[in-house]
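Request: How about a record?
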Amino acid sequence: MSAAPQLTAAYSVCAAIAWGTSDFLGGYFSRRVNAFVFTAMFNLGGLILVGTVSAANHAVFPPARSVLWVLAGGIAGSAGVAVFFHALSRGSMGLIAPVAAVLGAAIPAIFSMFTEGVPSKIALAGFFFAAAGLWLITRSEDGGAPEGIGLAVIAGIGFACFYICVRQAGNGSALWFATLTRTGGLLITGAIVLLQGRLREITPSLVPRSVVTGGIDSLGTLLFVVASQSGRLDEAVVISSLYPAITVVLARFVLKEHFTRWKLIGLLAALAAVPMIAAG
């Protein structure tokens, strides 16, 4: 068995843990501040972290083509994150996060199948388990759509664009890719904050919260880039997109959000998907 799928799965799982944690923190903290203000500071914190590490490690700066792709991905992804945090601040974390994840994973997975071919049957079964798991996690108990679900769809499209752009950027330095992602994100969110005249909303208490959240998210981005470069895009995206499982668990134990048997079954299905995709 090739080690590539296993490496891709390992990096992707770690990315999912980092992203799920940052999404929980971002959704919680952005309830008290404008989502674009928070995301701008979130990007600044991530940029400082990964930019410093990139410079200290003397990583080779990627070519212009890669830079443009990653900047585009950072802009799309960060816009998605800002909309996502706003959605989380309005609705249930246990419902909003998986909707964005399912759409964010489905589009790149289809793209990968067209550009890289259809994966193995075991991996396809893993994709099915992952999709089923995330659907069960999103399942509304009252049959209605939760508030913020439309924003979650928009966020998911932004995430999908980020995944595809990073893949199109090639195999440059993962550190610089993560740095450029944050640069693109800061450009778009910073511009929106300036145009809205919200600089005064950046308070001393906001800075450490957003910087820590952005640092954790940047770690997830770095791990995803490595996962994407070590194997197939669809495998990296589908496993990394299981991050709502982390968000849901944190929302359950920290915020005491309702946790039904369907969510538990969904989480178990998502966990079962990881080794299946890795075996493929």
Q: What stands out?
A: Residues 174 and 225 are 6 Å apart (CA to CA).
